[in-house]
Write a structure and sequence with these properties.
heterodimer; A: about 375 residues; alpha/beta; 2 domains; B: 7-stranded antiparallel sheet; 5-stranded parallel sheet
Chain lengths: ~375, ~900
């Protein structure tokens, strides 16, 4: 029986300039830390081999210390064999990267830099690995075509290792399309894919492992890898997700109605407190809220924001609910009331450009804020 | 609130003392005092009491302190709805605030409570009040010089009289909203609505721009790195391609093949070159044999010509010999004639020489004679000189004796003359015809002549007798002097050896003549024998020796020299002609001899040439066979030449293309060298790219670029958010401004209602527009013409300022918060007419107001009326 850990898209060395400086460093460090978490997961599930299906590194020329430290961590996990495949971010064309890696790779690291079959041994004893390294950032062809005719010893489990989009499934436009039925066509026991950062099953034998440490809000999953067990060349693989992520990139929607208590709704929408400091939350506030509710919401958001590694509320989906009583808080009559009503009307005027409406609504909200706490 | 008293201690000019204004009444109060009396000090102290905290340290407070420092105390009694209170504050030192109840006597509040009590009294909620100040010369209608609360007091006045105004305008809530909005907006944008430098929006935009710039730099670095990586990949690929063993072998094989082909072509070319040389040799041989044949034939012809020439030379030789013989004869005759002429010439020359010698001998004899004469004269001169010298020596008296004789004689004569002068005079004057009758001492007498009688004088008169006249005894010493003088003369003459002075002087003159003669003789001798007599004698001896020969020659008959000269010249001419003739004859003889030699030489040459030609040709019997052999040899050589040329043509026709073979070889060599060079170049290029890649990749520009992109996006998002906030704030500011402007008419209506009757007291039909911010007049319209307040006259502006405050004060009073109006020299510019009307206006408004007028125009304000206030001393306790 063959057992291994399938992962991909480590993007080691990736920087997060848009994030605050302290968080940016932590996110970069968390990616390097994923290697240790992957090693731990592999050991915990009895997998002696870790297959990385491309994008080990984020760039063609990552900082030398990133290469060095990654290889050192792998070397320290000496009980494991690491098989590294070039992806579209670190293709074969990145010869500076791969020549450095070749020079510095420890004995337990296999660089799958050619499409030649590899027999990693260990918990993959008896299985043959068919790698399809990405030659360039955009190969322009299906790199797994060669799998179909690749000769392997009789009875050996054929395991494909590739990086790229299946059909129109890629992370980046213009990526080479891998035939979705490549596993069937090439007689593969399992096709380990990388590129898509969300863990995804294409068919029983074809999986994207997803990234072990998320780097964006898009997928809404925690960082994961796959533990794969193969009983025999024809037996369906046993595939089990394992969590490996340090940070959680969450997107939540807070839908408000005019009568709802925004603070309560917010509390319900947010993750539990212990997870928050490792969460980068993007909160889309939608629906309608009266001015007091909006002010209360802003106060609640302000109060809860420091809980999170990053907290990004988005109010573009929130409309002001029209209520004369709310305007009374600004003034019951007179010039202030006139100004408030003018702004409200402008915010609700569908004939106006979005920017003007937004400015009017924000102006009204500001005015309410000024007046709510004024004598 | 009403002010009842004001007291100050240690304030500015009231240093170390107190002053008080007591008894301030309702209505109009006037404090008229000259400049520097302290009116403005009161004004400022009152303002500080109500508006500054006792703990304050601001400029307004410090300006109250006198030079000596110390604590400043201000106290006021005020009456409010709650009663009569005393408010007291000490500033700057021993700071304290205290409010006490004058009715009950207890302390109402102190410290912060007192400050709060005052604030409440001035403008607390529900009781808007305050002080309305019009500063000295306060024509600005607000702004500078106006305490901040005055503005709020004006609005509170409005609110107090018109309950709906607050609701209408938003009142202080509107102000707060506008202020907060303006503050928030001011942090983001400038007044011109551009991002404010140093503000968050400007910073975010600047950071985004800076990051975009950095991003571009990094993108360029990444691009450059990728390009270098691509170049290195290509270089490595190309190096591998060139260095591949098969490719190297192919290059070597091509080179070997090209070199073999070149060698073949070069060998063939060498053979062709050898054939060419052979052909050249054959051509040369043919030419040589042809020339040998021609030479032989030419030699035969030459030998024949030489034989003819030898005959000619023989003939010429004979002719030359004959000519030489004739010339010899001519030369002999000429030589004979020359010998004769030479003899004649010699004879003539001898004759001429003899004649010349004779002439010379005569000249020498003459010279000898002259010298002998000279010698004789010289010797005579010398003898003369000796004789004259001797004579002179003999004659010459001893040195100085002549002078002494002369001196003694002169002395004697003088004595005698003197004696004669003293002697009697005798004059004989015979009658005519009797002269001869008288003789004196034997001599004829000169008639009429006085005769001195120094000695006895004997006058004989012929025929008559003798008269002797004797001198007297004379003076007693006269005889001695004369005798002494005569003795002296006698001694001197004896020394000279002369009888008398005349003889002595005659001898001395003779001696001088002899000396002169000796000089002349000596000079003559010198002229005749300048080098001495011996030299002259030697010269004469030489001449005599020379003249001995000549004397001999002279003995022969001397020929005529001129004739001898002529004869000699004729003989020379004859000799020259003879010589010429002989020379000519010899020339001709030499010419014939030369012609003989030439002819002999030519004959010899011709003979030798003829012999040489014969020797070259050899024996005559062999000459024909030799010619035949040479002709045959030449024909054979021509044939061999043709054959060699044919061979050469054949080789040339079959030659491979050497240039092409060379080019092919060059190309193969070049290709191999190029490959080597490219390998080397690629090695260098790869090394260079390794360095460049390592340097740039080491800095990880891709990662830096990704990070910079993220940071730029974040900065842009931040800028966009701030811009949205600025948009919202701008929109809010505009909405608030618009709303307030809409309400402004209502807002100011109560003020205008108060102001209009006051204005009417000063001018007809004037309308006022208010500035919404300052709540003060901004524009006045008279007779349909609007004027900005700033362009009004100073007087009109100050009147408007005062009336506006009065209007507001009335509003405040109507609201129950009666506020004192304090006018500090506020009518400085008003003319007499207007000031009267202003007094009326003040009293009109003073019905339910308290107005305190501070003025330095004591006379002008006498007519104001009201309660007069005066400074009183105050202990400060």
């Amino acid at each position: 029986m063959a057992r291994f850990l399938h992962t991909a898209d480590l993007h080691l060395g990736k920087r997060f300039g848009a994030a605050p400086e302290a968080l940016s460093g932590a996110l970069t460090a968390a990616r390097m830390g994923a290697l240790e978490r992957l090693a731990g997961a592999a050991r915990a599930h009895g997998a002696g081999v870790v297959l990385v299906a491309g994008d080990v590194f984020d760039a063609e020329t990552p900082p030398p210390q990133v290469i060095r430290q990654a290889l050192q961590i792998m070397a320290e996990a000496a009980d494991l064999r690491w098989v590294l495949l070039p992806g579209n971010h670190d293709p074969l064309a990145a010869d500076e990267l791969w020549s450095r890696a070749r020079a510095e790779a420890p004995a337990n690291v296999t660089l799958a830099l050619t499409p030649e079959p590899v027999t990693p041994g260990g918990t993959l004893e008896g299985a043959v690995l068919l790698p399809a390294p990405c030659p360039r950032r955009r190969p322009g062809r299906d790199t797994t075509e060669g799998f179909d005719a690749a000769p392997t010893p009789p009875g050996a489990a054929r395991i494909g290792l590739a990086h790229g989009a299946v059909a129109d499934f890629g992370e980046e436009a213009g990526s080479a399309a891998i035939a979705p039925d490549r596993a069937r066509r090439a007689g593969l026991a399992y096709l380990a894919l990388g590129d898509w950062h969300g863990q995804t099953r294409i068919d029983a034998r074809t999986w994207y492992a997803g990234t072990p440490e998320p780097d964006r809000h898009r997928h809404g999953q925690p960082g994961r890898a796959l533990v794969v067990s193969i009983e025999g060349p024809d037996a369906p693989p046993q595939v089990s997700p394992v969590e490996t992520g340090r940070y959680f990139w969450a997107e939540r929607a807070l839908r408000l109605t005019a009568d709802e208590d925004p603070a309560a709704a917010l509390a319900a929408a947010l993750p539990p407190t212990p997870d928050r400091r490792r969460t980068l939350l993007r909160l889309a506030v939608e629906g309608r809220a009266r001015l007091p509710a909006r002010a209360a919401l802003l106060a609640a958001l302000e109060a809860v924001a420091p809980d999170f590694a990053l907290f990004e509320p988005d109010f573009t989906g929130l409309c002001v609910a029209q209520d004369a009583a709310d305007l009374d808080a600004i003034d019951r009559a007179g010039a202030l009331r006139d100004a408030a009503e003018t702004l409200l009307a402008e915010a609700r005027d569908a004939g106006r450009p979005v920017r003007e409406r937004a400015a009017a609504e924000a102006a009204l909200s500001i005015l309410y804020g000024y007046m709510a706490d004024a004598p | 609130m009403r002010l009842r008293a004001l007291r100050l201690h240690n304030v500015r000019r009231f240093e170390g003392r107190g002053v008080a204004l007591e008894g301030v009444a309702d209505g109009v109060n006037v404090l008229a005092a000259p400049n520097e009396a302290g009116k403005s000090t009161c004004f400022d102290a009152l303002q500080a009491l109500f508006l500054e905290r006792c703990t304050g340290t601001g400029k307004a407070l410090k300006s109250l302190q006198p030079w000596s420092g110390e604590s400043v105390t201000v106290e006021a009694d005020v009456e409010t709805a709650g009663g009569l209170f005393r408010v007291r504050k000490q500033f700057l030192s021993r700071k304290r605030a205290l409010v006490s109840d004058l009715a009950g006597g207890g302390i109402v509040a102190q410290g912060d409570d007192a400050e709060a009590w005052i604030a409440e009294m001035l403008g607390g909620p529900g009781a808007p009040a305050g002080l309305l100040w019009v500063r000295q010369g306060a024509v600005e209608l607000g702004g500078r010089g106006e305490p901040a609360p005055a503005h709020e007091a004006r609005r509170d006045a409005l609110a107090a009289v018109a309950g709906e105004v607050e609701a209408l305008t938003g009142g202080r809530r509107m102000d707060r909203a506008r202020r907060r909005c303006a503050e928030a907006l001011g942090a983001l944008l400038t007044d011109g609505r551009r991002p404010k430098k140093g503000g968050p929006l400007s910073d975010a935009l600047a950071e985004a721009a800076r990051l975009a710039e950095r991003e571009a730099e990094l993108a360029a670095q990444v691009e450059s790195l990728r390009a270098d990586l691509a170049r290195r990949r290509e270089a490595r690929r190309r190096l591998a391609e060139i260095s591949e063993p098969q490719a190297a072998q192919a290059r070597t094989a091509a080179l070997t093949e090209a070199r073999a082909a070149l060698r073949t072509a070069q060998d063939h070319a060498a053979r062709a070159a050898a054939a060419g040389q052979a052909a050249q040799l054959a051509a040369l041989t043919a030419a040589q044999t042809a020339r040998a044949l021609a030479d032989w034939r030419e030699a035969l012809a030459e030998a024949a010509r030489r034989a003819d020439a030898l005959d000619g030379a023989f003939r010429a030789m004979g002719e030359a010999d004959a000519a030489a013989e004739a010339a010899g004869r001519d030369e002999a005759a000429a030589s004979q004639a020359l010998a004769t002429a030479e003899a004649a010439a010699r004879a003539a020359a001898d004759a001429l020489a003899a004649a010349r010698a004779a002439t010379a001998a005569r000249a020498a004899a003459d010279a000898l004679a002259a010298r002998e004469e000279t010698l004789a004269r010289a010797e005579t001169a010398r003898a003369e000189a000796a004789a004259a010298s001797a004579e002179a020596a003999a004659l010459a008296p001893p040195e100085g004796v002549v002078a002494r004789v002369a001196k003694a004689d002169d002395a004697l004569r003088a004595l005698r003359t003197a004696a004669e002068g003293a002697a009697p005079r005798v004059v004989v004057e015979p009658v005519p015809g009797a002269e001869d009758a008288f003789t004196v001492s034997g001599r004829a007498v000169a008639p009429g002549r006085a005769l001195s009688v120094a000695t006895p004088l004997r006058i004989e008169i012929a025929g008559r007798g003798v008269v002797t006249v004797s001198p007297g005894a004379g003076p007693p010493d006269g005889g001695a002097k004369l005798a002494g003088a005569e003795a002296a003369l006698a001694r001197a003459l004896a020394e000279a050896g002369a009888p008398d002075r005349a003889a002595l002087e005659s001898r001395a003159a003779a001696a001088r003549d002899c000396a002169a003669r000796a000089d002349v003789a000596t000079a003559t001798l010198s002229a005749l024998a300048p080098r001495g007599l011996d030299a002259l004698r030697a010269e004469l001896a030489a001449l005599r020796r020379a003249g001995a020969g000549a004397a001999e020659a002279d003995e022969q008959a001397p020929p005529d020299p001129d004739a001898a000269e002529r004869a000699a010249r004729a003989a020379e001419a004859t000799l020259a002609a003879a010589r010429q003739r002989q020379s000519d004859a010899r020339g001709r003889l030499a010419g014939t001899a030369s012609a003989q030699a030439v002819a002999a030489s030519r004959l010899e040459d011709a003979r030798r040439a003829a012999e040489a030609a014969d020797r070259r040709l050899g024996p005559s019997e062999a000459r024909t066979p030799r010619e035949t052999a040479l002709a045959a040899e030449s024909a054979a050589a021509v044939e061999a030449d043709a054959e060699a040329r044919a061979t050469l043509e054949r080789l040339r026709a079959a030659a491979p293309d050497l240039a092409a073979a060379e080019a092919a070889e060059r190309r193969a060599v070049s290709a191999a060298a190029n490959a080597d060079a490219e390998i080397a170049r690629l090695g260098v290029e790869i090394a260079r790219l390794d360095g460049a890649v390592e340097t740039v990749a080491g800095a990880a520009p891709e990662a830096a670029l990704a990070e910079t992109q993220g940071r730029r996006a974040a900065a842009e998002a931040r800028a966009a958010a701030l811009q949205a906030e600025a948009d919202a704030l701008s929109r809010l500011a505009r909405a608030l401004d618009d709303a307030r402007a809409g309400a402004s008419a209502h807002y100011f209506e109560p003020v205008l209602a108060e102001l209009r009757p006051l204005l009417a007291m000063l001018m007809d039909s004037a309308e006022i527009a208010f500035d919404e911010a300052a709540l003060l007049p901004s524009e006045m319209t008279r007779a349909g013409r609007a004027e900005p307040v700033e362009s009004l006259s100073g007087g009109t502006r100050e009147q408007l300022a005062v009336l506006t405050r009065l209007a507001f004060a009335r509003l405040i009073a109507k609201g129950g918060g009666a506020a004192p109006v304090i006018l500090d020299d506020a009518l400085a510019f008003s003319d007499d007419d207007r000031i009267e009307r202003m007094f009326d206006a003040l009293h009109r408004q003073a019905g339910d107001l308290q107005i305190v007028v501070l003025t330095c125009r004591q006379r002008a304000f006498e007519r104001l009326g009201g309660t007069v206030l005066r400074f009183e001393d105050w202990s400060g306790e």
